[in-house]
Amino acid sequence: MFGRFSRRRFAKLAGFSALGLASTPAKPAGGQPKPALDQNAGAGFPDGFVWGTATSAYQIEGAVDEDGRGRSIWDTFAHTPGRIADHSNGDRANDHYHRYKEDVRLIRDLGVKAYRFSIAWPRVFPQGAGAPNPKGLDFYNRLVDELLANGIEPYATLYHWDLPQALQDRVGGWQSSATSKAFGDYAGYVAERLSDRVRNFFTVNEPGRFVNFGYGWNIDAPGLKLPQAEVNQVRHHVALAHGLAVQAIRAKARAGTRVGMAENIAACVPAIDTPENIRAAEIATRELNAGFLGVILEGKYTDAFLAYAGADAPKFTAEELKIISSPNDFVGLNIYAPQFYVVASDRAPGFDVLPFPASFPHMNSEWLRIGPETIYWVPRLAAKVWKIDTIYISENGTSSSDELAADGKVYDLDRISFLRNYLTQLQRATAEGVPVRGYFLWSLMDNFEWIFGFEKRFGLYRVDFDTQGRVPKLSVSFYRDVIARNAIGI
User: Fold this and answer.
1) Domain residue ranges in the chain
2) CATH number for the segment(s) 11-485
3) Has 449 been labeled as part of a binding site?
4) Which of 39, 73, 124, 350 is 20 to 30 Å from the Cα of 429, by its Cα?
């Protein structure tokens, strides 16, 4: 299991069976892209570009039984024998719940001015709904205050996979629209109390991962293998939850609060940069993301998606589509590896997906193929297809073996190489006018890496999970330099 599937790997299975490969092409809005080249492309990223880093609650907080926190589906799943590669769990993780001040200093020392973290739903509503737990929200109040005191802008994610176990037990979790409604209530409650200091909220993180892996393939929590029709309905309920959360935040938060989602978009790249292949990549981007990003940003499921799904298509109402398509202030894209290299085709749906050769290079995680051009093409195509004017790269980074050298330091040259090449391509995108406004490097520090436990290290800081010591890797110096110059390259 652990070799075949991974943290964010989609591959063809996700794209074709879950996101709805079209049987007929669908026409995206707009014509052929005509990027306006910035004559100062070598000068770096735009003024005001947001540099950040990111974590998630279950992966770092620990303290799973403290201050009234309820259980999450990942608590249950991680304690189920055979589910986690190294037999670990997130009970303690990075002990961030008690060490958050130390960790905020690490963020400050990086030189970033933004931090994306997630709020644990079961800390705030231990039963998923009903009575809130004031002590749970108190932790995030303290964290936000500490961030602001250190000159760091908080970006809060409301759902990073840790669904309250009570909702899974009571209504089947995301199988029920009752969970969508509970999420909207939770979002409104948090936004009302934090938006005096938190101006940016991500609703849900990576439905493309947690829906398929958790409800379709029995890989992630809650560990179900549902028929495709039910998986599609789960995804619809998550999209509905996003829409209800947007509405609740608009109603409850302070004026000026901004909201969007973060999705591990099915990353489509033209195999060769010709007009025909770029057009094919536009079609592929729209159709292979029709089940979540598409319905949110267009207010409808594409005809091709519904035709492909057939009897397995989600059931929905016009009112639900209206809620789902509530306007967003930004779109977060989690971009790691190319998932689909495409070329134009005379046959429907207008593109062909090419197979990956066995020799295709990858990082320490086998699924993390190295394709720096992905972070150029994906936001460019998404902005074109859906006319998005504000994009954040809400996650990008890589695992590395991160061995301690004889001098006790970590010389993660492979991570630096990965970041240098990806950020060069991102700088190319912003120079051409692609509306990427910020970048959040995954991750601040090594953490509980879901089904891989502590075996995969994505952090800028190395963590000794026995002593909880944090050691900066060489990539800290690299990233700090990029931020200081607001540029990659001389």
Assistant:
1) 11-485
2) 3.20.20.80
3) yes
4) 350
Measured CA to CA, the distance from residue 145 to residue 129 in angstroms comes to 26
H/E element, 242: helix 228-252
**Of residues 111, 133, 115, 116, the one with CA closest to residue 124:** 133
Q: Which of 206, 263, 298, 373 is catalytic?
A: 206
In this structure, is the dihedral angle defined by the CA atoms of residues 357, 363, 369 and 375, taken in order, positive or negative?
negative
> Tens of pLDDT along 187-228?
999 999 999 999 999 999 999 999 999 999 999 999 999 999
Asked if 206 is an active-site residue, the reply is: yes
Q: Binding site annotation covers 277?
A: no
CB atoms within 10 A of CB 467: 7
User: Do 325 and 296 touch, CB atoms closer than 8 A?
Assistant: yes
User: Annotated catalytic, 432?
Assistant: no
- Was 217 annotated as part of a binding site? no
302 vs 294: CA distance, rounded Å: 8
Is 0.90 topped by the overall pTM? yes
- Give Cβ neighbours of residue 169 (< 8 Å, ≥ 6 apart): none
- The tens digit of pLDDT for each residue in 39-85 reads 344 579 999 999 999 999 999 999 999 999 999 999 999 999 999 99
Q: Helices 96-110 & 134-149, crossing angle to 10 degrees?
A: 20
Distance CA 417, CA 375 (A): 15
Quick one: DSSP state of residue 71? P
| Ramachandran assignment for 60, one of left (phi > 0), alpha (psi -120 to 50 degrees), beta (any other) | alpha
Q: What SS3 class is residue 392?
A: strand
Spatial neighbors of 318 by CB under 8 A, at least 6 apart, are none
Residue 442, marked binder: yes
3-state class (DSSP) for residue 62? coil
Asked if 234 and 211 count as a contact pair (C-beta separation under 8 A), the reply is yes
Distance, first Cα to last Cα, the chain = 43
| Residue 174 known to bind ligand | no
**Does the annotation flag 450 for ligand binding?**
yes
